[in-house]
Design a protein that fits this description.
heterodimer; A: mainly beta; 7-stranded antiparallel sheet; 2 helices; 23 strands; globular; B: alpha+beta; 3 strands; about 40% strand
Chain lengths: ~375, ~60
């Protein structure tokens, strides 16, 4: 009997990433910083990796919400709730949320070559305010962008949107750990961003063409918007949302941010008293971070404790980075005002419900 | 909004910046690393007339 060789699949020449979804935390499951922030008037993160970006356009409550499209397998959404309206934004105002990407993770898009592949963005969205919204891809390395309009047809109803963007044969992305690429979801903009003609093919960025036609989500305190299931992938077809475990999702987020301390009675690291005023400890990050991170700490009376030599010695903070890498940070705990015994080893822990220690290497 | 930016020293060596914010008990210790976006923000902040990095020395 003749043998027939089984050929490799036709897609064998495609270099597939470990994760099909370029976006991290597209299901909004991870929110290390907070699950709800009120009175937001400046740019910040809430759900991990999703940067709420605004300039003088309304006041907002941001939250990780449980309103999700029925039967789609999502448990969380990102809710954006207007609490102070701005019906007439100034020309330079902007309002959007975005995810930023390292160029070294996107080389397989072959951007800047004749083989550049298209990019498809799919997501579930629900908004009180119907009308035209703008989704934009932006190449920061080469200052190029492309936008697409989509319509939210029914108020307060979950809708799935799929947008395919052409591949860009101009402008390769840098192969490094810096910000190379952005996915923008516009929610409002002043005329600096809307006065031109919507840029629906890859071009050098013209600010006036970026968000033409975008409705103003800030125009009423009745406006709420929810979004989840955001997936950006190579190719011209939107595949099913790539579900990953919470642990995998968290690990991917921790390359950019991790918050080991959030409340009282939590250990930070072991440490030793360098002298009577200062102690030092080494904190090892759970995953290697994008770059040497900053340390974000809250400070207040007796927010932290050094436990050693059969006693606890309080200090107020902040924690100071004395040296660090992508893998670990040497942290200085200072201002003990002569209360430590040089050479004593011990442990650092939080001692207040508002104690917080986080490491940030965001893009 | 940034209130102050101060140089941190360790064993006599300048090792990081410390940022404080207006009306906030949050403080950020920033490495001397160009790829860190807080470091980039400090350079932009310091380039604005009237903003000065505090240097209390080692």
């Amino acid at each position: 009997m003749a043998l027939t060789r089984i050929q490799p699949p036709a897609i064998a020449d495609v270099r597939e990433p470990n994760f099909r979804n370029i976006c991290i935390n597209g299901d909004m499951a991870v929110a290390q910083r907070s699950t709800s922030d009120a009175s937001v008037t400046t740019s910040q993160f809430l759900c991990d990796r999703w940067y709420f970006n605004l300039s003088s356009q309304g006041t907002w409550t941001l939250s990780q919400d449980t309103d999700v499209p029925t039967g789609q397998g999502f448990a969380n959404s990102f809710k954006i709730n207007n609490t102070t309206a701005d019906a007439s934004p100034a020309v330079s105002d902007y309002l959007n949320f975005q995810q930023r990407f390292e160029g070294q993770n996107l080389q397989y898009l072959k951007k800047g070559t004749s083989n550049a592949v298209p990019i498809t963005v799919s997501f579930w969205i629900k908004s009180v305010l119907t009308g035209t919204y703008i989704c934009e891809l932006r190449d920061d390395d080469n200052t190029r962008s492309i936008s697409q309009a989509y319509t939210i047809s029914d108020a307060s109803t979950w809708e799935k949107k799929t947008l395919t963007f052409a591949g860009d044969t101009t402008g390769a992305l840098d192969n490094d750990n810096a910000r190379s690429f952005n996915l923008f979801f516009w929610l409002g903009a002043g005329t600096n961003y809307t006065s031109g003609t919507l840029n629906t093919s890859w071009n050098s960025t013209v600010t006036a063409n970026r968000a033409v036609g975008q409705v103003n989500l800030a125009n009423s305190t009745s406006n709420n918007l929810w979004v989840t299931g955001i997936q950006m992938e190579a190719g011209s077809v939107a595949t099913n949302f790539e579900a990953v475990s919470y642990g995998q999702n968290l690990e991917r987020c921790e390359r950019y941010f991790n918050r080991p301390i959030n409340g009282s009675g939590q250990g930070i690291c072991t440490a030793g008293a360098y002298n009577s005023n200062d102690a030092f400890g080494i904190y090892i990050f759970p995953v290697k971070m994008r770059t040497t991170p900053s340390i974000e700490t809250t400070s207040g009376t007796s927010y932290y404790n050094f436990i050693g030599n059969n006693t606890g010695t309080s200090f107020d903070g902040p924690l100071v980075l004395s040296t660090g890498t992508e893998s670990s940070a040497q942290i200085a705990f200072s201002s003990f005002a002569g209360a430590l015994t040089q050479g004593v080893a011990g442990a650092f822990r939080s001692a207040n419900a508002s104690s917080s220690v986080a490491f940030s290497a965001e893009l | 909004m940034v209130n102050t930016v101060t140089k941190n020293y360790f064993l006599g060596e300048f090792v990081s910046y410390q940022i404080t914010y207006e009306n906030s008990n949050v403080s950020v210790s920033v490495p001397l690393e160009e790829a860190n976006t807080d470091y980039q923000a400090i350079q932009e902040w310091a380039a604005i007339d009237g903003n000065n990095i505090i240097d209390n020395g080692a």
